[in-house]
From TrEMBL:
<feature type="domain" description="GGDEF">
    <location>
        <begin position="534"/>
        <end position="661"/>
    </location>
</feature>
<dbReference type="InterPro" id="IPR029016">
    <property type="entry name" value="GAF-like_dom_sf"/>
</dbReference>
<feature type="transmembrane region" description="Helical">
    <location>
        <begin position="21"/>
        <end position="45"/>
    </location>
</feature>
<protein>
    <recommendedName>
        <fullName>Diguanylate cyclase</fullName>
    </recommendedName>
</protein>
<dbReference type="InterPro" id="IPR043128">
    <property type="entry name" value="Rev_trsase/Diguanyl_cyclase"/>
</dbReference>
<dbReference type="InterPro" id="IPR035965">
    <property type="entry name" value="PAS-like_dom_sf"/>
</dbReference>
<dbReference type="Pfam" id="PF00990">
    <property type="entry name" value="GGDEF"/>
</dbReference>
<keyword id="KW-1133">Transmembrane helix</keyword>
<dbReference type="InterPro" id="IPR000014">
    <property type="entry name" value="PAS"/>
</dbReference>
<keyword id="KW-0472">Membrane</keyword>
<keyword id="KW-0812">Transmembrane</keyword>
<dbReference type="InterPro" id="IPR000160">
    <property type="entry name" value="GGDEF_dom"/>
</dbReference>
<dbReference type="InterPro" id="IPR013656">
    <property type="entry name" value="PAS_4"/>
</dbReference>
<feature type="domain" description="PAS">
    <location>
        <begin position="215"/>
        <end position="285"/>
    </location>
</feature>
<feature type="domain" description="PAS">
    <location>
        <begin position="91"/>
        <end position="161"/>
    </location>
</feature>
<dbReference type="Pfam" id="PF13185">
    <property type="entry name" value="GAF_2"/>
</dbReference>
<dbReference type="Pfam" id="PF08448">
    <property type="entry name" value="PAS_4"/>
</dbReference>
């Protein structure tokens, strides 16, 4: 074995030098003794044989004495050499054990690069049926493309350098094996007598690297590329890394997050919650809870937060925070809630009774404004060349009953086609030069036409001075169309109910409202006045001299005179004001807004109308008037009528005293 030879080289050299010295010394002594003995014997023999023998014996004795002296002088050296030789042998055996038992590939090569000895791993890798792999040149152990480089490394080792490098070994059956190799020179004196080639099989390392890469990529797919926001925090609560999803949703960059704590994006006042969560996750518990994320731009998002401990063995080195944005879910829940509210309100609208129509119009407008995020809402009714405001919400400019010329109203476009009118921004629409804006300053508008019994009745419209957060969508348009359709149905039912109710609520002689209808109207007007403000008033009318008409011309003529009185009264009041006959020659006029038509002006028109002569009689008919104002003269229909009746009676007495009919 080359290892044994190389390790035994030193003691053999020492042994050779020692014995060479000993041989020269012993030979010189023996030569001297033999020479002296021979000369003496030759000289003495002819003279005396005994003397010659004695001289020869003396020479031999001298040789023995010299040998004894040499032995005594060289004995310590011999002992040191024996100890050194034993140590060398132990080192040789130790090297043999290391070489044969080492787990890495080991090959002893001579200076020509020929393998002299292979350990077990090397034999398993390079050996085959033809042998254990010894006697082969180094080139046969490496891939062809690596041989030039390995030759250069081997040459460096022969010059005394320890060389490390990565190469590809060529095992049995041409198996390519990545290895990390080391050439260690074996010196003998100043010369290198061989090279020890140690090679570590990198296949397990490569497999481990692939596993690490796989785990790294899997972690990256779970963390960096995850669509859900994620953070990695250390045990000291500081952020180690954040994925792109978290940066995108929070608005913070990686440089702002790394090194910060979760307080950066947590809501103020949540310190106790964060502390409790930290204790639980560091105890190894994974859990989730609902919280809020404070973004860099000030937005607050609802999120589900999951805390997952980051364990290494039994140690918790930190934790992960995984968030799920609930904004879309909350928006969906709000839309669902709004849809339920829409259906509930629209169902109420679809089943409205006659008595609830006016209050319900106001509720519908308020609901529509809230759903559509609009400031102003109107229900408009066509009356000749004007729109009459039937209901309003949010507007301080107009009141119920106000008239807007159709030609100057943006809502006139609702009459031109069946489709809703959608304006997301008046400044960027084709209507930006349209001066008509319903008397209001607004930026966005949504309206739909209202039809009753197939005839255009008016329109439902919403507007706002401010732009919405998002443009109107199909759901908004469908919602307004449905509201307008149901409003049309409600107005149609109301109109039919009024027509049928006229039989019970109208005076058959004059066609005016009777006492029942008057009471209902007063109740509604009082409710509306309380809600919307304004001033409500009534006039109590009683004819003067009508008894003479019946006595002189008969009741048939009297009835026709009453009908003519009713006709004249209707002609001098506004269209939305009520005239009622409550019995005999007594009439009531209800003025629903005294700011537009005062009691004095209406009384003057009535008195003027009564001065005209009647066709079938030649006697004058006068009229006594008693005014009353809601809130001032009475707070309910009964007290209001009683106050007006009392004032009418006083006015009649004054007329009689003055002799006026």
């Amino acid at each position: 074995m080359l290892g044994g030879m190389l390790l035994a080289e030193a003691p053999k050299r020492e042994e050779g030098r020692f014995f060479a010295f000993s041989a020269r010394a012993f030979g010189l002594a023996a030569f001297a003794a033999a020479l002296v003995s021979a000369v003496a014997t030759i000289v003495a023999w002819p003279l005396h044989h005994l003397a010659a023998i004695a001289i020869a014996a003396a020479g031999a004795t001298i040789v023995l004495v010299l040998g004894a002296i040499w032995r005594a002088m060289m004995l310590p050296t011999i002992r040191r050499f024996a100890a050194y030789a034993a140590a060398i042998e132990r080192e040789r055996e130790r090297f043999e054990r290391l070489f044969t038992t080492m787990p890495d590939i080991g090959i002893l090569c001579d200076t020509n690069g020929v393998a002299q000895q292979l350990n077990a791993p090397a034999q398993g890798l390079f050996g085959d049926e033809s042998g254990d792999g010894t006697g082969r040149h180094l080139d046969e152990y490496v891939a062809a493309e690596q041989r030039d480089a390995v030759g250069r490394y081997f040459a460096r080792a022969l010059h005394g350098d320890v060389v490390e490098f990565e190469t590809v070994a060529l095992g049995s059956r041409a198996l390519r094996i990545p290895v990390w190799a080391t050439f260690v020179p074996i010196p003998s004196g100043k010369a290198v007598v061989g090279v020890f080639w140690i090679a570590k099989d990198l296949r397990p390392l490569r497999s481990l690297e692939r596993e690490v890469l796989f785990e790294t990529e899997r972690f990256r797919s779970l963390f960096d590329i995850n669509y859900e926001p994620m953070l990695q925090l250390g045990a000291d609560r500081h952020i180690l890394r954040a994925n792109a999803a978290f940066e995108r949703i929070s608005g913070y960059g990686s440089g702002e997050l790394v090194g910060a704590t979760s307080a950066l994006f947590s809501q103020t006042g949540s310190e106790d919650i964060r502390e409790n969560a930290y204790r639980r996750v560091m105890a190894g518990e994974a859990f989730e809870f609902e919280s809020q994320l404070r973004c860099k731009d000030g937005r607050v998002l609802p999120v589900i937060v999951a805390l997952i401990p980051m364990a290494h063995g039994s140690e918790i080195e930190g934790y992960y925070i995984v968030m799920r944005d609930l904004s879309a879910q909350r928006a969906f829940e709000r839309r669902e809630q709004l849809t339920r509210e829409k259906l509930r309100e629209l169902y109420r609208l679809a089943t409205v009774s006659q008595d609830e129509l006016e209050p319900l119009l106001a509720r519908v407008l308020d609901f529509g404004r809230r759903i559509l995020e609009m400031e102003i809402g109107y229900v408009l009714e066509i009356d000749g060349d004007d729109f009459v405001i039937r209901a309003k919400g949010g507007s301080q400019r107009f009141t119920i009953g106000d008239r807007i010329p159709i030609a100057r109203a943006i809502s006139r476009h609702l009459l031109e086609n069946e489709a809703p009118l959608v304006i997301n921004d008046i400044r960027e629409s084709s209507f930006h030069n349209d001066l008509s804006a319903d008397g209001e300053l607004w930026r966005c508008f949504l309206g739909a036409p209202i039809s009753v019994e197939g005839i255009r009745f008016g329109g439902l419209m919403f507007s706002s001075r401010y732009l919405r957060e998002s443009p109107f969508d199909a759901n908004d348009v469908d919602f307004v169309k449905l509201m307008a359709a149901l409003l049309g149905s409600a107005f149609e039912r109301d109109r039919r109910a009024r027509t049928l109710g006229d039989l019970a609520l109208r005076d058959p002689l004059t066609g005016l409202a009777n006492r029942t209808m008057l009471a209902q109207r007063l109740e509604r007007e009082i409710v509306r006045t309380k809600r919307n403000g304004g001033e409500l008033g009534i006039l109590f009318l009683d004819l003067d001299g009508f008894k003479d008409v019946n006595d002189r011309f008969g009741h048939a003529v009297g009835d026709r005179v009453l009908a003519e009185v009713g006709h004249r009264l209707v002609g001098v009041v506004r269209g939305d004001e009520l005239v009622a006959r409550i019995g005999g020659d007594e009439f009531i006029v209800v003025l629903n807004d005294l700011r537009r038509d005062s009691l004095e002006r209406c009384t003057a028109r009535i008195e003027k109308a009564m001065t005209k002569p009647f066709a079938e009689i030649d006697v004058p008919i006068g009229i006594s008037v008693g005014p009353a104002i809601f809130g001032l003269d009475g707070s309910d229909p009964s007290s209001l009528l009683a106050a007006a009746d009392a004032k009418m009676y006083r006015a009649k007495q004054l007329r009689r005293t003055a002799g006026v009919r």
